[in-house]
Specification:
The structure is a single chain. Helix content is 30%, strand content 16%. With 380 residues, it is an alpha/beta fold. It folds into two domains: 56 residues, DNA polymerase, domain 1, CATH 1.10.150; 271 residues, Alpha-Beta Barrel (TIM Barrel), CATH 3.20.20.70. The strands form three sheets. The chain has a nine-stranded mixed beta sheet, with helices on one face. It has a two-stranded parallel ribbon with strand order 1-2. Helix 6 links the parallel strand 9 and strand 10. The protein is elongated and about 70 Å long. It binds iron/sulfur cluster (SF4). The site of iron/sulfur cluster (SF4) has 12 residues, from loops.
Length: 380
């Protein structure tokens, strides 16, 4: 199945609801075109952009620099709503998780991880996932559909509402970093992800620096260079194994893009250097990928790539086929990498008690059954 056919088949519904369309998620040019269609000058679109993405307005009435008449016209044609919160949970460690519901009833999860020096927001890009990584809870949820730019950017805007971070400021932010590490493979929904990230990086709007945005991929090799060239955001790669026969099982996409191809694409990722390294995620699975030999092999694989490794103690979920490595084995693995000059901190699990930790996300959304359809075909 070609990439474009996949994007079409799993596209978000054109109109999620009858009635006014959302202005959220439109590019600047598209917003200007919508406003011009109402016979209004371009600067009105700039004013709107400011209200939407700098002030975080959720209704036109609040946009007091616009005339009352214009606000009323806007409200008849458009809306600026946020995704609905189906449930909200707070972990004992302060991590917050929202289950968000879209007008067509589909749901995704978004997670906020407050830390001392930073606050990371983990956002989703698909309902379910195209891929079936065996250590990941989302991987057990067949792909239902891709998220639209509005639904991707809507997660950031909703989280800002919830932590009280409007108007957007560059000083003492609560949400400092965005990671596309939630539900879904972002490079299998690249068009919509790119639209949303361009809005997130707009300096007159949400104003996130591309250095504060990390896109995590399981290794969709053909799309990696484009991501680097078009967005220039940080790259994280779900590596999780150093031998193809093991990775074929843990990350089945490896059968299509084996480790050697993946690492070549990493070497070619634009803008990487020692001060801007690629993050390799490595989930620690007991007796599967956690031996000293695995660690030494990993050092060899990464020797000519500006790299850092995140060692992730496996976060169990109901029915998971793996166990977390022993703490001593994780520490030994980390020591071998550090001793070889590769930064390999062990990530502290956050939000495990509310199933908000890495690899634990899943929603109840299901694609309409087509006689027990196979998991989504991986696009060509
Ligand atoms: S790790 Fe990422 S790509 Fe793999 S199944 Fe989970 S969400 Fe999908």
């Amino acid at each position: 199945m070609s990439g474009s056919h996949h994007a079409q088949q799993f596209a978000p519904p054109a109109a999620l609801t009858a009635g006014p369309r959302t202005l959220i998620g439109l590019s600047r040019a598209d917003l200007e075109a919508e406003i011009a269609a109402l016979g209004e000058p371009a600067f009105r679109a700039r004013q709107l952009w400011h209200w939407l993405y700098h002030r975080g307005a959720t209704d036109f009435e609040a946009m007091t620099s616009l005339s009352k008449a214009f606000r009323a016209r806007l409200a008849t044609h458009f809306r600026v709503a946020r995704p609905a919160i189906a449930s909200a949970q707070i972990s004992t460690d302060g991590t917050r998780k929202w289950l968000l519901r879209f007008p067509d009833g589909q749901e995704v999860e978004t997670v906020f991880i407050p830390q001392e020096e930073r606050g990371t927001l983990c956002i989703s890009s698909q309902v379910g996932c195209t891929l079936t990584c065996r250590f990941c809870h989302t991987g057990t949820q067949r792909l239902v559909r891709n998220l639209s730019p509005a639904e991707i950017i809507g997660q950031i805007m909703l989280a800002r509402d919830e932590v009280g971070e409007w108007p957007a400021s560059s000083e003492d932010r609560k949400i400092t970093n965005i990671v596309l590490m939630g539900m879904g493979e972002p490079l299998y929904n690249f068009e919509n992800v790119a639209e949303a990230m361009k809005i997130a990086m707009d300096p007159e709007g949400l104003a996130f620096s591309r250095r504060k945005i990390t896109l995590s991929t399981s290794g969709v090799v053909p799309a990696m260079a484009r991501c680097g060239a078009e967005l220039g955001v940080n790259l994280a790669v779900s590596l999780h194994a150093v031998h193809d026969d093991v990775r074929d099982v843990i990350v089945p996409l490896n059968k299509k893009y084996p480790i050697a191809q993946l690492l070549d694409a990493c070497r070619a990722y634009p803008g990487t250097h020692n001060a801007r390294r690629i993050t390799f995620e490595y989930v620690m699975l007991r007796g599967v990928n956690d031996s000293a030999e695995d660690a030494r092999t990993l050092v060899g694989l990464l020797k000519d790539i500006p790299a850092k490794v995140n060692l992730i103690p496996f976060n169990a979920w109901p029915g998971a086929p793996y166990e977390c490595s022993r703490p001593a084995d994780i520490a030994a693995f980390s020591d071998i990498l550090f001793a070889a000059g590769v930064s390999a901190p062990v990530r502290t699990p956050r939000g495990r008690d509310i199933l908000a930790a890495c690899g634990q996300l899943k929603s109840a959304s299901q694609r309409l059954k087509k006689s027990e359809r196979e998991p989504a075909e991986v696009p060509a």
